[in-house]
Fold these 2 entries.
Entry 1:
Amino acid sequence: MVQFEHYRSPLHRYTFSVKPVRQWVEKRCEGRVLNLFAGPTLLNVDEVRNDLDPVMPADYHLDALELLRSWSGQMFNTILLDPPYALRKSMELYKGNICSPFRQLKDEIPRCLSPDGIVITFGYHSIVMGAGRKFSLERIALFSHGGAIHDTIASIERFNP
Ligand SMILES: C[S@@+](CC[C@H](N)C(=O)[O-])C[C@H]1O[C@@H](n2cnc3c(N)ncnc32)[C@H](O)[C@@H]1O
């Protein structure tokens, strides 16, 4: 059964700078983590960090899809996806850095993820990787920001190849 959690939290363009969200994600990450859209907040997990913006503290400053395609290191137990949620947000909030083509990015993930690994996604959708890629939805957390602001949906999907 899918586990459901609900929180009230302020909205910030850098998602993990909000303490309850950071604490939630740190608690849910497992093992070696690939943080593909890392932003400014260092997580208290074993993370490899990537962000296209060169001023962000990261191990790599590549387009997320390019990083996945070129990855030849150890596989990850968790892949964290917190991309810009919309093109307009990229322009207004993230210096015009837009998310890689998302379907291609999702297709590339299983090559870099251990069997039984998880993908944690933040955005407007609850199913991201999907059964077609052999993922099952385990948990949804809804972060409600109040007023007319869209909630942020975090989902955890487990890879069962
Ligand atoms: C929604 S923010 C989240 C950042 C981080 N997870 C946090 O909570 O602070 C999206 C991040 O993705 C980065 N980004 C945008 N396009 C990217 C791309 N194609 N590849 C890698 N990073 C990208 C932005 O620079 C920004 O830091």
Entry 2:
Amino acid sequence: MENRRARGSHSFFKRRLAPASLRGYRGRMKATLLPFMAALSLAGSLQAADKIGEIQLVAPNVYFHQGDLSKGHCNQGWIVFKDFVLVIDGNFPSGVEEVLPKIKATSKKPIKYVVDTHHHGDHAYGNQAWAEAGATPIASEGALAEMKKYETGYYGRHPLGRWEWAAKSRADVRNSKLLPPQIIFKDKMVFDDGTMRAELLYLGNAHTHGDVFVWLPKQRILFSGDACVNGPYNYMGDGNSIDWLKTLDAAKELKPKIMCPGHGGMATASLIDDQKTYFTTLHRLVKPFTTKKAGQQMLTAQTGLLRKQVVKNKQIARYVGDKFPDQLQKIFGDYTGQTLGRLDVQKKAAEEEKK
Ligand SMILES: [Zn+2]
């Protein structure tokens, strides 16, 4: 938890906003209508509590929605431009079903675009459902390349790709179909209608090789996807743990005031520091093993001890979870080229098939 006090914020953050379209909605569904910085000032803390399923007004015309992880849902955001709504993150199809009425309660404008922050199912498998709602999915070149790599079923290389694997356990995936992003950009794509500006940025490898940040320079709000999370949600299997540190530095250079992560509650800029401190701590602990003979076995044997060390640091204790052993192994692998081979869901799928 963060203890630092909230400092001065822009006046619009302090203004209580309740658009007419939301007033009726509030009665039916729990919604947070107090802009984020104002809510923080009242709470006296810079770290917001989990507000799963609520409509959270981050700034005028900018919304955040914390997904329900028990359903596998990612966090989402939406930005209301003059003529349309842009949604951040595709989610699973069931996540689209859940968030669509909430978006429609905040704006009558057409939902035209959805940005997949990366190729993972909980951020991109809802694309077809968004298309049915009128929105075109957007992602980076890197995210599309990742999709081509892992979606072997769709691209015809192996019938059991990640989508098919997810469909085994998820009815919403089974009942939909994979729709790759239709608008692709390399490093930067800008939406600017004179009043609202959103920059879609690829800042380097991180959680995957195609992570997109959505940056609102006027409000200094950064939607980070899973390149920066708030809690024990760092899945590292598809990214590069060494590049990730540099990418977080690049994100920090934007100087955001508000962080809307891919998983976990909304937070202030210190979230980037927390996430980076967690990773640098893990790197520092793993590195000595990388030069030892049988280093990987030693690392595996000492994982419990290392976990105890990391949770002692209050700044990063909340990042330690069941992915901790895989995180250590992934970092070890990125330095040495050796992996345990249990990070890839398709390998798990292949094992399952052999049974
Ligand atoms: Zn992800």
